[in-house]
Design brief:
Elements lengths: L1 H6 L7 E2 L6 E2 L5 E2 L3 E2 H7 L4 E4 L3 H8 L2 H12 L3 E5 L3 H6 L7 E2 L6 H4 L6 E2 L4 E4 L2 E4 L5 H13 L1 H8 L7
Parallel strand pairs: 1-4, 5-6, 6-10, 7-8
Antiparallel strand pairs: 2-3, 9-10
Helix pairs in contact: 7-8
């Protein structure tokens, strides 16, 4: 997503829950945040707030009062909220987008369907109002391009997509 956005000069801020220290993700991938979540919040509002996936990451996002505050602010102003893989479970934890059609990683489906808060979809990417969700690592390019399309239009998304040589 960040790479696709950078191709079209969308300003991206990667925020860490605990600060700017590198964050260990699934499969021992590390991400170096640009800012702490608190500092990033002061710079907002943002056109989109994106929640990554991974079970532990989604759990951490679900337990964070700062994430809840950012999501509630974004939802109240009808800003785009996007989540991929297990990330949508943080939406559930914070009461975001209830009534929306969503998708998530298959392993998180049962958790998302516990109750009547969402209409579950098996789509690779699902957009309902200001909530955009996607299933997992294999859908990440589609997810990123859906964000670009929502923010900048279909033509720009097609321009971003062309050099990526994605399978149709």
């Amino acid at each position: 997503m960040a790479e696709a956005a950078d191709r079209e000069t969308i300003k991206v801020t990667v925020a860490g829950l605990t600060g700017k220290e590198p964050v260990q993700c699934s499969r021992d991938v590390f991400i170096c945040p640009d800012a702490s979540l608190e500092d990033a919040r002061k710079e907002g509002p943002y056109d989109v707030v994106v929640l990554p996936g991974g079970n532990l990451g989604a759990q951490n996002l679900s337990e964070s009062p700062a994430v809840k505050d950012i999501l509630k602010d974004q939802e109240s102003r009808k800003g785009l909220i996007a989540a991929i893989c297990a990330g949508p479970t943080a939406l559930l934890a914070h009461g975001i987008g209830f009534g929306s059609k969503v998708t998530t990683h298959p392993l998180a489906k049962e958790k998302m369907m516990n109750g009547e808060h969402y209409c579950y979809s098996e789509s690779r990417v699902e957009k309902d109002g200001n909530i955009l969700t996607s299933r997992g690592p294999g859908t990440s390019f589609e997810f990123g391009l859906a964000i670009v399309e929502t923010l900048m239009g279909k033509e720009v998304a097609e321009q971003v997509k062309a050099p990526l040589i994605l399978k149709e």
